Every structure is written in C-alpha cells, then in structure tokens.
Amino acid sequence: MGREFEIPLESLVEATPEQVWSAITTGPGIDSWFMGRNEVEGGAVRTAFAGAELPESRVNADEPLKHFAHSATPGPDGRFVAYEFLLEGRGQGSTLVRMVTSGFLPGDDWEHEYEAMSAGTALFFATLTEYLNHFAGRGATPLTESGPPVADWPRAWRALHAALGGPPEPGDTVRLTPPGLPAVQGVVYFRNAQTVGVRTSDALYRFVQGIGGTMLVMHLLFGDPEGQAAAWRSWLEDLYADRA
Fold first, then answer.
1. pLDDT computed for residue 241 by the predictor
2. Is the distance from CB of 194 to CB of 116 less than 8 angstroms?
C-alpha cells in the first residue's frame, strides 16, 4: 500500500522574478520560508531540520527565472518528495509563482502522513508568499523548538488559540507575551487544522502540529535571535506542561 501524491499551489506575489529565484534556489533564501537550514550546492538541495539531515534532493531543472525543480532519490520503500517551481513575470514587479510538491508515501498509514504533509506544505507556500510580499531580499534566521508530548491535540490547539486571544483567522491581529521577550503583535497570515502563521514587522511566527507528537514553533526571525530559542522553549513548556 501507499500513495502517490501531488499538491499544486500558486500565488501572485509583489516581488520580481529575480527575488523569487533567489528565494527558491539559494540556501539563505530557502531558510527564510521553508524549514531548518538549507544549502544549494553541487546540483543538490540539502536540508537540516531538528538535528537531522533530510534526504538529499537532486536538482533536475534549472532554467533561471523560470523553472527550478529538485527531487529526492526514492528510498527502499519507494518514499520520495519532489518540489517544482514555475515562475512567470508579470507587470509592475510582480511574479506568478507555482509550486508543485509531489512524491510517494509508503505503508498502510500513509493517510496520517499525507494529512500532515498537506497541512505543512500549505503553510510553507503561504510563508513563501508572505516572505516575498513583505521581506523579499532579506535573510531570516530559522528558530525551531518543540514543546512537551501532546496527548490530546484538540485540547492542545485550544490552549494555543486561547494564548492568541481566541481561534485566529487570517487577517486577525493577535498578541503573545513570551516571558523574557518583548510582546509579539502581528497579523495572522495563514491557518489550517495543523498550523498557524503570524507576521510581524521583523518575523514570521509559525506554530505547527508535529508528526512526532509535540507542538513546534518554526519561526523565521529577521531581527536579533539572541535568547529567543530558550524563551520560546520555556513558553511551550508553560503552555503545555499540564494541559496537553
């Protein structure tokens, strides 16, 4: 058993093809909207996330300002993920960006993984769009922390939504006060059943239901990251220590 999948997404962004190209074909660019630390070198894209190296993804299309694609080599069980980007320049410095995520998920439990992948992919693309519309050309520092194990996800999400002032909807203004950090006030740019994204003037804050059974923060910081990892880890521990 298993499933082949394809997730197409597209958006018109207020960024030039050159800015989009930098965001999808360079390590610092990918760092600023995807996950973990990335490098593009020797015809491959490599991603390190949460202390692990993800399977190397080989570049198989590289047409500057138009088409970029890379794919992991299928594993023994057939598992792989591929990414394809198509760019079309529009007037007044805008670009139509299409991203297609495809691959194969093996096993009888592929549905759970596909649900999580679909939710995460939607967040990543929304973050790419938000990055290009508001931070194009700037480099972000990725910050990833996880909270305590979660036994009840609906309850865990209610706790997070309460911390944000209620179930957030795109366009809402929300405020958080992590101990040891200035108050965070921003606009919700994305939400689905497993993720929330918030934009401020110097960060893209993301909250993600981790496949490993913990709530993750996967923030992208355009300001000073010093001390923020410990502060967000403490915030997650306080939020979920007795309620998750």
1. 82
2. yes
Dump pLDDT digits (tens) for 40-98: 999 999 999 988 898 999 999 999 999 999 999 999 999 999 999 999 999 899 999 99
Q: 7-19 in b/e burial notation, b at 16+ Cβ within 10 A?
A: eebebebebbbbb
Instruction: Indicate the residue among 115, 134, 153 that finishes a domain.
Output: 134
Whole-angstrom CA distances from 60 to 28, 85, 184 are: 20, 11, 41
Structural Rg of the chain based on CA atoms = 18
pLDDT for 242 equals 67
CB-based contact 38:31 (threshold 8 Å) = yes
Considering only CA atoms, which of 224, 83, 244 is closest in space to residue 162? 244
CATH of the domain at 95: 3.30.530.20
Q: If you search the block for the tokens 């600023």, which residue do you land on?
A: 32
What are the CB-based long-range contacts (under 8 Å, 24+) for 21-28? 21/64, 21/65, 21/68, 21/87, 22/137, 23/128, 23/131, 23/132, 23/136, 24/68, 24/85, 24/128, 25/62, 25/68, 28/139
**Could you tell me the end-to-end alpha-carbon distance of the chain, in angstroms, rounded to an integer?**
33
Provide the whole-model pTM: 0.96
The Cα–Cα gap between 220 and 239 comes to 21
How many other C-beta atoms are found inside a 10 Å radius of the C-beta of residue 40?
20
Give dist(CA 201, CA 30) in Å, integer.
Answer: 19
Q: Give yes or no for a contact between 93 and 16, defined as CB atoms under 8 angstroms apart.
A: yes
Structural domains counted in the chain: 2
